[in-house]
């Protein structure tokens, strides 16, 4: 190999080392990829894919200008950005290593704002099997990725929200309330702004750049009717009007631009609430919706901690529920305020521990996560169904070895 070849090889390897700083997009694509060694050298072999198949054939008119020279030699800046928008966001971490202009463009988040403006969204699944270690899964490319480990100790997590290009992990550190914030743009964790009323056992959901948490119990043990909204553009929490009914362990979704709180445990007699509440984002008012929780007669009289055996997800403004006790998928009929059984869970050996199961929306699909035992090995499986009017036909998206079940899960679309 001649001297010029050696120099080019060194540049390529240098770019690979830098790529880990600008997004988990390029970090540890699969189980077979090892972590950095003690010297910090990457063992990954990165491949830059030209296009994501689901993002091709978009006609884009960016119409923005930026303050520096060419991104791609010989192309105008607008045309260069046009090309970048058609790439998968899996590629952005590696692109950030090419030059300072690319790096600056990606770190500002401007590409993601433009993608949203023209209707491009890619959904990734974020989850943790260990409190401080989070992973991501890209269903478009069937890739598993490791996020940097949260640098902390003695952390208890109460919930997680994917908001904009951020992942919020809400919990306590050494008994004190804390929120850890992961940035997709920089692939780093930091401490985020704290809730105005710290709480646990709350419900939560996100939509684009905003997320809302509702209910829960405060540090003094009082059941709350308050709710707070997080805006990733400002990084701040805003206190919303109070719900009509205080509740803990409730579930939440967004539908038709409105925020819904479903079920939960009441504050006074500790019974399960069958009503839901709807928050209008425009009028800032709450409305009670009766019979929104699919309660069963067998649930009455049972210890309240075992009653929250449902997860909810909304796809195309239709509400679905996963009934863990019956292993059934149900759909909510808005006209009759009743639940209709439409199918069952994926046909696999799911974990008997309900905390190891998760049910989420992901674009136009419903996702079901579960632990299973196959040929003597513990695995995590991800199933997908494109929600329509028919019976759910679950498709296995991915399977991964895991010694533990998932503690928390969130879906980020950007």
Could you describe the 3D structure shown?
- This protein has 414 residues and is mainly beta.
- Helices cover 11% and strands 37% of the residues.
- It has five helices and 26 strands.
- The protein has helices at 3-19, 77-85, 92-95, 100-107, 110-117, and strands at 123-130, 133-138, 143-146, 155-163, 166-173, 176-183, 188-191, 203-207, 210-214, 227-231, 236-240, 247-248, 251-255, 258-262, 265-266, 276-280, 285-289, 310-315, 318-323, 328-333, 338-344, 358-362, 365-374, 377-386, 395-401, 408-413.
- The strands form seven sheets. It has a four-stranded antiparallel beta sheet, with no helix packed on it.
The largest beta-sheet arranges its strands as 3-2-1-26
According to DSSP, the number of beta strands is: 26
Global geometry: globular
The biggest sheet amounts to: 4 strands, antiparallel
Strand content: 35-45%
Helical content, roughly? Answer: 10-25%
**Average pLDDT:** 79
Radius of gyration: 22 Å
Low-pLDDT windows of residues: 1-68, 297-307, 350-354
Oligomer: single chain
Straight-line distance between termini: 43 Å
Instruction: Decide which structural class fits the backbone.
Output: mainly beta
Count every helix, treating DSSP H or I runs of 4 or more residues as helices.
5
Could you list some keywords that capture this structure?
single chain, 414 residues, mainly beta, 4-stranded antiparallel β-sheet, 5 helices, 26 strands
